Amino acid sequence: MQFDDDADLDTSEVQDVRGSRIPGGRATVGGGLAGLIALLLGLFFGVGPDQLGLSSGDDQPAVTSSSLAQVQQSCRTGRDANAQEDCRVVAVVNSIQTYWTTEFARRGGTYTRSPTVFFSGRVGTACGTASSAVGPFYCPGDRKVYLDLGFFDELRTKFGSSGGPFAQAYVVAHEYGHHVQDLMGTLGKSQDGVTGANSNSVKTELQADCYAGVWARHATTTPSTSSGKPLLTSLTDADIRDGLDAAAAVGDDRIQQRYQGRVTPETWTHGSAQQRQQWFYQGFSSGDMAQCNTFR
Q: How close are the terminal C-alpha atoms of the chain, in Å?
């Protein structure tokens, strides 16, 4: 996975609140058993704090000039994205949103860009206050993606993924798949409280996986808004394997077997390892979001 060294990065699409204190004393998920439960319920992405039944507060992360400057100063070009993890995420966000802007326009619609918020510890959102234990998530209340970069280490150590830069890109692309669903009015289908292998929750998550694959298919041909050349210049078969491995690692069956020693399909919220791989690859192989109708 390689970015154009000379391409400019748009840091306005990322808010960096790492190290900021979140005002208020509302409930949040901490470490230990509570944190593990939240992590398992979240199944690491797609579920905001509101869906986990945390707080319903309206705390917002305080974006300080110093924290914004950290990314703005460090992440200026594709060369930085090839060298630093946070800059790589900035580049992935840029690529994803440029693709969906173009795709929505091609279909006669309008894509509204969504910022990604880097946080550490805990963060206040329009969906409530959450800790890093929840994992990456999208909040429809403020239409932002929330990400603690430390999760990428947990993807390998706790979930057994092979890791790699594109595994990280898959995580981010999945979250933006939820943003696409939000803009199209389909995200609400997952909020009926029903679980199970054939539930709307599972279908919603699998569709976000498929949308992640659609972006991946077009990533190396989507022109950068700054240079007109693709921001992502190289995506190898090994990269796609890392993405597929990450998708499998967070399948409901894999997580349940690892943490409770048995598989209970009636409680699934995200789909099996095989399903998650299947739908990511469906999006990647077709390159067509119309082929991502998991609700059929």
A: 33
From its phi and psi, is residue 163 left (phi > 0), alpha (psi between -120 and 50) or beta? left
The residues near 185 (Cβ < 8 Å, ≥ 6 apart) are: none
pTM higher than 0.90: no
Residues 245, 166 contacting (CB under 8 angstroms): no
Phi then psi for residue 40, to 5 deg, are: -70, -40
Strands 144-147 and 232-234: what pairing?
A: unpaired
What pLDDT does residue 20 have? 72
pLDDT digits (tens, 9 = 90+) for 79-92: 999 999 999 999 99
Provide the 10 A C-beta neighbour count for residue 160: 16
What is the C-alpha to C-alpha distance for residues 189 and 91, in angstroms, rounded to an integer? 30
Which are the contacts of 125, defined by CB distance < 8 A and separation ≥ 6? 48, 49, 59, 60, 61, 117, 139, 141, 142, 144, 146
Residues pairing with 292 in the sheet: none
Mutual angle of helices 200-218 and 237-249, in 10-degree steps: 170
Q: How far is CA 185 from CA 127, 137, 140, 155, 271, in A?
A: 18, 18, 11, 30, 21
Using DSSP, state whether 148 is helix, strand or coil: coil
Q: Which three-class secondary structure state does DSSP give residue 2? A: strand
- Cβ-contact 45, 6 below 8 angstroms: no
The pLDDT tens digits for 138-156 are 999 999 999 999 999 988 8
